[in-house]
Amino acid sequence: MRLDLLAALNAERAARRAAVVVTELATGAQRLATAATLASDPLAPEIAAALAERRSGKAGEGSVFLAVDVPPPRMLVIGAVHISQALAPMARLAGFDLTILDPRTAFATPERFPDVPVIAEWPEEALPAYGLDPFTALVALTHDPKIDEPAIAAALRAECFYVGALGSRRTHAKRVERLAAAGLSQQAISRIHAPIGMDIGASSPAEIAVAVLAEVIRALRTGASATAGAAA
Amino acid sequence: MDVTDSDVLAAAERWRREGRGVAIATVLETWGSAPRPVGSRLVIDAEGNFLGSVSGGCVEGAVVSEAAEVIAAGRPRTLEFGVADETAWKVGLSCGGKIAVYVEPVD
């Protein structure tokens, strides 16, 4: 690999952007495919498919190797609540870089969340610096529209791979009305997983955390969008 | 997807800029249930220092020694490791898997 290509790849990774190193196996010739250069690549369809599946492998009838680099997944949890206390260690075990955001300083304390980054600010203040992106899951758990909804709207606009929100169907129906009034399309709003969590009959906060984590992993690994199944 | 892989590529760049001879090994293909997925990387320097993993331990030794030749020759090569079941169990490829690894110099 040429040093300049390696440096460009590392720059993409540092910026949390997906990139694919395309290697012609017979000659060793290499190029970097990014969102910016993908369209002009002769293997564009195969590279796009590999990116969608987040999977490295051979292409071009075996003559080419596509090394897919996608950023490590993050999870931003809105609400320093009971479910979050269970979800934080589970999600970190599963490989997510997890952060909790809650402007209510009584909730967002290091004592309640040891070793977890906790941002005690409003979403509008904190999200620009956090940088939501397509490799981030947004899990909204406060039940409070003032806190959850700005984060949900921002996550939909940033095309987060998963957006889920706690609340009953009735709560969600009202949320949908407000998000539509705020200018979000029906298509974007339909991406919200609500009620949140895979339907495993979860009841306790820890069980709901399992249901949420399972749903996030399914979205990450299969690209599955919002489904009917729900736990809470 | 792997935080470690990110460190591996950062190390490859840093080591090369320090003037070291560097090779990157990448898992090209696996057959059976190999311990590390396609795309996993190992970075090796000319002294035999390495970071990352292509097999969870069992063929790293062989890849590291081949990497020294790749760094010296300045040309990539593809290595295939097919391991009989019993041997595989002894060296750590518990599945009797087979892997192909692409080793390339950083230049």
Automatic annotation (TrEMBL), chain B:
<feature type="domain" description="XdhC- CoxI">
    <location>
        <begin position="15"/>
        <end position="82"/>
    </location>
</feature>
<dbReference type="Pfam" id="PF02625">
    <property type="entry name" value="XdhC_CoxI"/>
</dbReference>
<dbReference type="InterPro" id="IPR052698">
    <property type="entry name" value="MoCofactor_Util/Proc"/>
</dbReference>
<dbReference type="InterPro" id="IPR003777">
    <property type="entry name" value="XdhC_CoxI"/>
</dbReference>
<protein>
    <submittedName>
        <fullName>XdhC family protein</fullName>
    </submittedName>
</protein>
